[in-house]
Amino acid sequence: MGKIQKVACIGAGLIGSSWATLFSKNGLEVNVYDVNKEALEESRRKIANNFKVMQENEIITEKEIDRAMAKINFYEDLESAIREVQFIQECGYDHLETKRDILSKVDKFNSTALFCSSTSFLMITDIALDSKYPERCIGAHPYNPPHLMPLVEITKTKKTNRENVKAAYNFYKS
Hints:
- There is one protein chain.
- By secondary structure, the chain is α/β, with parallel strands linked by helices.
- It has helices spanning 14-25, 37-56, 62-70, 78-82, 96-109, 124-127, 162-173, and strands at 6-10, 29-33, 72-75, 87-90, 114-117, 137-142, 152-156.
- It has a 7-stranded mixed beta sheet, sandwiched between helices.
- Helix 6 (124-127) links the parallel strand 5 and strand 6 (137-142).
- The longest helix is centred in the N-terminal third of the chain and has 20 residues, at 37-56.
- The model has no long low-confidence stretch (mean pLDDT 97).
């Protein structure tokens, strides 16, 4: 896997918005996807607020905020959101069938990106059970909020490629 430069956050809730904040702050292009247009609008507000709080605490400057916000795109179409990304941070509702459904759709539109599920209690083995590409599936449970807490619990399936686990580890560490 080459250098990760473009990521997608699937799910525009609290965790997805926080991941998008972190990724864009660190110079990555970020596509935020949700089926709900209102959730995307709320995500834009959450991300802006995350940056505002960071600025108030002298973590980031206004110029850095402008650069980071310019790197975020919002999508209601999953195929467009995950096209050409190298890394997918899935943040859908923590319900097994919901996550399996998301992964089955991801499998149709992107066969190469790492698929990292922000799940707090589901096993990635169960989520990836029917995936066409289980070698790229990783559990990635963040401490909350991800843009402020630099800790991620990484789990894998028996079929997850060791190099993909290492790539995810190195990506989160960076």
